[in-house]
Design a protein that fits this description.
363 residues; alpha/beta; eight-stranded mixed β-sheet; 36% helix; globular
Length: 363
C-alpha cells in the first residue's frame, strides 16, 4: 500500500470517528477565526461584481457563451412565452446542446414582475425528479415572488450521475487524464451551459432587466451548482446555494488531495485556478442529520477520493468549505463563501429549501 493511499484511508477513518458535536465545534471555530486567517472577504453580492476583472471588462462574454448552437433555444418560442407569462406551473422545451429536447418546468408566482422579478434555477437530485423539486420550490418562490426554472436532466439523455453533474469529458472516464488525452469537452458545450442558455432565452422572452440568476441545488444538484461555478467562464450567478452534496471537486491543486474529479489537479489547465469559484457568492448548506455513511446510503459515493473528504455528506461539506478557505488564504485570494447548518435536517430537499430561499432572497 502506497503512503499516499495509507494517508487517504487514515484520514477517512478519522473522519468517520468524528461526532456531530465535534463537527459543529470545528465549524464554529473555523467561522470565528476568519479574521485571524486574513482571507479577503467580499461584500455580499447583489450583482455580478464578484466576477473576475476579465469578465467585467468583456461584457459580451456571457452572451457569447450561449451561441455555440445555431438552433433556437426554445423548441416553440410562442408557447414558451405563454408559459413564462402565465401564473402557476407550466412546462416548455429547449433544444439542448446535445441536439435533444430538454424539458423545463416553470413556476411563476401570482405577483411576479416580468421586468424586475428575480429568476431562480433549481437543480434536482439523482432521482431526476424535476417536477417534485418544482412543487417543493413553489411555496418558497411565492413567498419571495421569484420565477422558478427547473431543467430536467433525464436518465434517458443523461444516464449516469457523471453525465449530469460532471459533463466535462467527451468520452471515457472522468479522470485526471481527460485533458491531456484530448477528451475535455468544449466549455461551451457542457450541461452547465444549458443554464446560461436558458437564462438568456427566459430573460429575452420576459424582456427582463435581471443581470443574472439565482441558483440552488440539492444532493446531485448541489454537485452541479459548485461545478458550474468552477467550469463556466463568467457565470451570471447572483447568489448560489449548494445543499448536501454527496462529494465535491475541491478548489485546489494541492497534491495532498486526490486528483480530478475530486480536486482541480489534472483538470483542463484553464480551470485549475480556483480564483473564480472562491470569489463566487456561494453558500454551502448542510443538514446536521445528513450523516448516513455508504453502508446506509447506496447513493453516497464510496471511492477513496470521496471518502477522504469525509464519511458522510455533512463532513464532506465542511471539508469543501475548509479547503476553499485555506486555498484563498494561501493565495491571498478573495473568498466569498458561507457555510450554514440546518439543525435537524437530513437528506431531504424539503427540509433545506426554505432556509435556502432565505439565504438567496431575504433582504
Amino acid at each position: 500500500m502506497t503512503p499516499t493511499l495509507q494517508n487517504f484511508r487514515q484520514r477517512a477513518r478519522l473522519a468517520h470517528w468524528l461526532s456531530l458535536h465535534l463537527l459543529v465545534s470545528i465549524l464554529i471555530l473555523v467561522l470565528g477565526v476568519l479574521g485571524v486567517l486574513g482571507v479577503p472577504k467580499l461584500a455580499e453580492a447583489t450583482d455580478l461584481t464578484w466576477q473576475p476583472a476579465t469578465c467585467r471588462n468583456d461584457v459580451a462574454i456571457a452572451d457569447s457563451n450561449t451561441t455555440i448552437s445555431t438552433a433556437p433555444v426554445f423548441v416553440n418560442a410562442n408557447l414558451a412565452r405563454e408559459v413564462l407569462k402565465t401564473p402557476g406551473t407550466g412546462r416548455l422545451q429547449i433544444n439542448s446542446l446535445q441536439g435533444k429536447p430538454l424539458t423545463v418546468h416553470v413556476f411563476r408566482p401570482s405577483q411576479f414582475d416580468s421586468l424586475t422579478g428575480r429568476i431562480w434555477f433549481v437543480m434536482h437530485g439523482t432521482g431526476r425528479d424535476a417536477e417534485r423539486y418544482l412543487k417543493t420550490a413553489a411555496p418558497v418562490a411565492e413567498r419571495h415572488q421569484v420565477l422558478v426554472v427547473v431543467l430536467e436532466f433525464s436518465r434517458n439523455d443523461y444516464p449516469t450521475g457523471d453525465t449530469y453533474t460532471l459533463g466535462v469529458v467527451t468520452r471515457g472516464r472522468v479522470d485526471d487524464h481527460a485533458a491531456e488525452e484530448g477528451r475535455w469537452r468544449n466549455p461551451r458545450q457542457t450541461p452547465y451551459m444549458e443554464i446560461e442558455r436558458t437564462f438568456s432565452a427566459v430573460r429575452e422572452a420576459l424582456q427582463s432587466r435581471q443581470p443574472g440568476y439565482f441558483l440552488f441545488g440539492h444532493s446531485a444538484g448541489a454537485q452541479f451548482v459548485h461545478r458550474l461555478l468552477s467550469f463556466v467562464r463568467c457565470p451570471r450567478v447572483l447568489k448560489a446555494v449548494a445543499a448536501n452534496a454527496g462529494w465535491y471537486t475541491l478548489p485546489t491543486v494541492d497534491k495532498k488531495w486526490p486528483p480530478f474529479p475530486y480536486s482541480l489537479r489534472g483538470a483542463s489547465r484553464e480551470f485549475q485556478d480556483p480564483g473564480q469559484v472562491l470569489a463566487a457568492p456561494l453558500t454551502v448548506l448542510l443538514g446536521t442529520r445528513d450523516t448516513r455513511g455508504k453502508e446506509e446510503d447506496t447513493n453516497l459515493r464510496g471511492t477513496e477520493g470521496a471518502i477522504v473528504q469525509g464519511a458522510n455528506r455533512l463532513q464532506r461539506g465542511i471539508t469543501y468549505y475548509e479547503v476553499g478557505q485555506q486555498a484563498a488564504h494561501s493565495a491571498n485570494r478573495p473568498f466569498a463563501w458561507k457555510v450554514q447548518l440546518v439543525p435537524g435536517a437530513g437528506h431531504e430537499v424539503a427540509e433545506v429549501i426554505a432556509p435556502a430561499g432565505q439565504l438567496l432572497f431575504a433582504p
